[in-house]
Design a protein that fits this description.
Elements lengths: L2 E12 L2 E12 L3 E5 L6 H8 L10 E4 L2 E2 L5 H7 L1 E5 L10 H6 L13 H16 L17 H14 L4 E5 L7 H16 L3 E5 L3 H7 L2 E6 L2 E7 L5 H14 L7
Parallel strand pairs: 3-8, 3-9, 6-7, 7-8
Antiparallel strand pairs: 1-2, 1-4, 4-5, 9-10
The structure holds adenosine-5'-diphosphate and magnesium ion.
Magnesium ion binds next to α1.
Length: 255
Amino acid sequence: MGHVLQLKNVSKTFGEVAALHHVNFEVGANEIVGLLGDNGAGKSTLVKIITGYHHPDVGGELYWRGNRIDRLTVAKARDLGIEVVYQERALADKQTLWRNIFMGRELSNRFGALDVNAMRRETKKLMRTVMGFTSAAVTSESVVKTFSGGERQGVAITRALYFEAELVILDEPTMGLSLSETKKCLDFVTGIKKAGKAAIFIDHNIFHVYPVVDRIVVLDRGTVAGQFMKNELTLQELTERLYLVAQTGHLEKAK
Ligand SMILES: Nc1ncnc2c1ncn2[C@@H]1O[C@H](COP(=O)(O)OP(=O)(O)O)[C@@H](O)[C@H]1O
Ligand SMILES: [Mg+2]
């Protein structure tokens, strides 16, 4: 299985603060990677490097499908198919569902005018196939303001998938969601896997991360404390190891 993304020896310092320190990190094709770590571990900084928002310090290398990317920009990352779904993602509250799906990337007809019918039609299709919106109260004309947190996440993830994201990054998507909304959000992550795409799933709660990922990477104060395939560890073992990380900075017991 080839990698979609590889970071080699990536460091990022902000003045005195080493947010990331010699990080090696990769995401396989159609792999869902869980990224765990306490506040300040460097998770969001890593995301910002992958999305071209920050550039790594000299010596860090970034590869997309095996090709070295010299200087990744936000536009370039998007071109490659790297899409972030932020927890606080700003949907346009007063706009309809279909407008939110196509915001900034509207479909137009061959005369260059907005193709409203096509956007409505596509939205209805996405609702059935991807979003799995079952509530009869939700239609393509519904105003997003009335949506639950989970439904809003669904809109954001659907948007990413529709626009051919190859790698979807979710930075703490379940924060502030209710139990049932969280379930829905986790279903969407599973949907990314089914769609044949890759994802990086960041969440504080290992009970959210564990069921939906293939591999787990633990960051601790800017370094990779350890990583393992999910099927190498039970949830119980993972929980115990994470306590160890908090104490020692390493995933493994000292031998
Ligand atoms: N733009 C910035 N300027 C200065 N320090 C930053 C900046 N972004 C992040 N940091 C620092 O880098 C460290 C890692 O932050 P962050 O990547 O947001 O961690 P996480 O997402 O794991 O909570 C923290 O100490 C944070 O204060
Ligand atoms: Mg963060």
